[in-house]
Specification:
Shape: globular
Structural class: alpha+beta
Number of strands: 6
Distance between the termini: 33 Å
Order of helices and strands: HHEEHHEHEHEEH
Helix content: 25-40%
């Protein structure tokens, strides 16, 4: 059975801001992709100021200063993720995926962590502008080009990448979508120190981790079993 998913999990955070050029056709896009993507792996060197790049669509009426996409905020949320996970373990974390618009492809963009009393939805909502911009820059063709519409976020259990890669049939993604001003007001009451985000980071040449899911959040492709699981037990001799 073909292994459809390639998994690349990184523990350190990095991403360069990027505005993709307009391509004349799909062939030109693919020809440029390897060169363009290589520019994404220069850690913090190319992070630009908030005023210099177009903002991602958001349910929020105004991006809070502590969640603008800049070096200080990204580094702070990364460190807070590490601190919260160290104290609470995997149980207080979730893996974050964003659906590529108009497809059944879901891209892994990082992980979030929260303290007791903060729900996964609140954790994601409080950090929405920063995570959305990070994800768009991480996947310039698949996500940034759709920056004018709110992204579809999905959460999976923390550190479940291998189960996702193997298309575990019982693992369900939880859809998180924000479109209400009441959500914004509630999220802003949460202290930024109570949540954290660790963005996915690619080594040069890596394609990134994606999965194919149906509308209900379950794997849409057959489960991938290990060679030992596929082996048929020998028949007993009478």
């Amino acid at each position: 059975m073909i292994y459809y998913c390639c998994i690349f999990v990184a523990c350190s955070l990095g991403c360069a801001a990027f505005v993709p050029p307009l391509a004349r056709n799909k062939i030109e896009v693919r020809q440029q992709q390897s060169t363009i993507l290589s520019s994404l792996y220069s850690k913090w060197d190319n992070l630009v100021d908030d005023e210099e790049e177009e903002q991602i669509a958001s349910f929020m009426t105004k991006v809070p200063p502590d969640m603008c996409y800049d070096l200080r905020n990204v580094e702070r949320q990364h460190q807070q993720f590490l601190d919260i996970r160290a104290a609470g373990g995997t149980e207080v974390t979730n893996d974050v995926y964003i659906r590529q618009p108009d497809t059944d492809i879901y891209w892994f963009v990082g992980k979030v962590a929260r303290v007791d009393g903060v729900t996964p939805e609140e954790c994601l909502g409080r950090q929405y502008p920063l995570i959305a911009q990070y994800a768009a820059n991480l996947r310039p063709f698949e996500l940034y080009l759709h920056r004018d519409t709110n992204f579809e976020f999905y959460l999976a259990p923390g550190d479940s990448e291998m189960l996702v890669a193997n298309n575990e049939p019982n693992l369900k993604f939880t859809k998180i979508k924000f479109d209400d001003i009441d959500d914004e007001l509630a999220f802003m009451k949460i202290k930024m120190t109570l949540v954290g985000f660790q963005g996915e980071e690619y080594e040069k040449g890596e394609e990134g981790f994606r999965t194919w899911r149906n509308e209900d959040g379950y794997a849409s492709r057959p489960e991938i079993q290990s060679p030992t699981e596929r082996e048929t037990p020998p028949k007993e001799m009478n």
